[in-house]
Predict the 3D structure of the following.
Amino acid sequence: MFEQLLEKIALGFDTRHIPYMVIGGQAVLVYGEPRLTRNIDVTLGLGPDRAQEIIEVAASWGWRVLADSPFVHKSMVLPCLDPASNIRIDFIFSTSDYEQQALERVRRVPVGKAQVSFASVEDLIIHKTVAGRSRDLEDVRGILLKSPSIDSDYVRRWLEEFDRSLGEPFLQRFEEVRKSSQPPQRRSP
């Protein structure tokens, strides 16, 4: 069912020229270890001032909108539910420089009749590191084990920027996960 929803999102947004990228657990399935996920997280290259447009698109797909306009403008998230599958789809509005750059770096992956835009491996690592929950950090570890040749300079640059702007040790968190995902060094006899 996830594949059908991702295909619908891709075809619908591509037709409307709405920039987007799939993040979260669905993107982890592309780059990391398979795991159970019950929702779809989609970052949009739109601000919340265009929420009504996305509400109309979701309604045209038969999805139920789970929040009102004030919630969307405050949280920057439009939660929806596909009643046929009971799968939740969260649309995240964004206008930050980082997100705009990340939207230019998407990886297009064939799903059904569509090319779905997934966050790049580096941007997924950044998102998961900033979220910082234990599940997110396990996802980062799995991604690093499966995709060891990432653009670490890009990841570090943005995490340093978030360290400064948000006052949290994101880069340190990433380095700790990166270190724990490397195989142990063999000692010479």
